[in-house]
Fold these 2 entries.
Entry 1:
Amino acid sequence: MPPLVTLTTDFGLKDAYVAAMKGAMLHVEPSLRIVDVTHQVDPQDVMGAAFVLLQVIPFYPEGTVHLVVVDPDVGSARLPIAGRFEGHLFVGPDNGLLSLLLRGSEPDQVVVLDQRSFWRTEQPARTFNARDLFGPVAAHLASGRALDEVGTPTDTFRRLHWAHPLADDEGIQGFVVHIDRFGNCVTNISREVIEKDPRSRHAKCYVGSTIIEGVHDTYTDVPQGEPLALLGSSNHLEVGVNGGNAATLLTIHKGSPVSLVYGDG
């Protein structure tokens, strides 16, 4: 099987950044298969990139290299790192994203990418490490190089933590973590949290400019143009509109609070 790399960035496709990075990778390994997860992560949104990638990783085989370049501190003293966890490899800046993907677990191995012979150039562009450092190293790893060949082992990397929803006897409070291109608003309230209390399915959902009754299973559970709360394919509560854009119609933004409030029954 040809070596496989998934690619997640905040570069967009208007400019040459993505194509240049892919070219640098293919120069290392011409047989490389590159799968674009997304290049539409909001600029510098590390948590947004992690959330999207968590929906992807389970569907890829062990040995896949996941290259994630969302780099608010590009050009600074932040370190380039790579890690291994559950048979997958992750490459990117030390910005906390690796810890978000781990979700409280520990990686099998993390290295600082300090072996310059695996970079495109020993003097990478300060503002384009994706092309000159991360991309080439990811290609080397996909083609069979070991982590300790391309970097020096470390136990230190930046750690960020997901904000968990708050649940009590009156309901569940969370917030919107992702809005997809259809305007569906995905929250940090997981199926697991919802199913802990049977009252959740009949709760009132307060979000944006509306109040929604109950938690549904699919968009067509309500008439065309009507809003609903449902458990989506990410196994998180989301707010949508059947045939419409919930974010626009209901004045919802990333970070908007979402409350499920139980009734008396």
Note: The longest strand covers residues 171-179.
Entry 2:
Amino acid sequence: MKPEELKIYADFMKEYGLEYLEVKKGDFHLILGKKGTIIEEKRFIEDRPKVDIDRIVEESRHTVQEVENIVYVKSPLVGTFYRAPSPTSPPFVEQGKPVRKGDVLCIVEAMKVMNEIKSDHDGIIKDILVKNGEPVEYGQVLFTIQIEK
């Protein structure tokens, strides 16, 4: 930075009676203070919540995620979602109806293999988030279950 550029900032401080001036512009960072003035270094940190990346990665690996008394049942694989064992059969579960641990919730077909997705909890089906015959991704939430405590 050239002396004439510094003078602009010094004159600004003098004009407004400032004892401390900090300027940030891109990679440029300038701190000016009057002689004899005690300046404490201030760091401005954005107010962001602390994120535990390891916990998020670990949760994403599970096919069930629990938050308070709601369980999110996720697809353990990529495939096609089916609510019933056949087109003429009734669905395995219905929204608002109870489900028991071990009950089949749905089938996810992958490469002509029918994979049953079972409940790990007793509770009530709050939401069915995928329509019959739709493709699903690994980790996609299929159901929310309100668990019994």
Note: The helical segments are 3-16, 53-61.
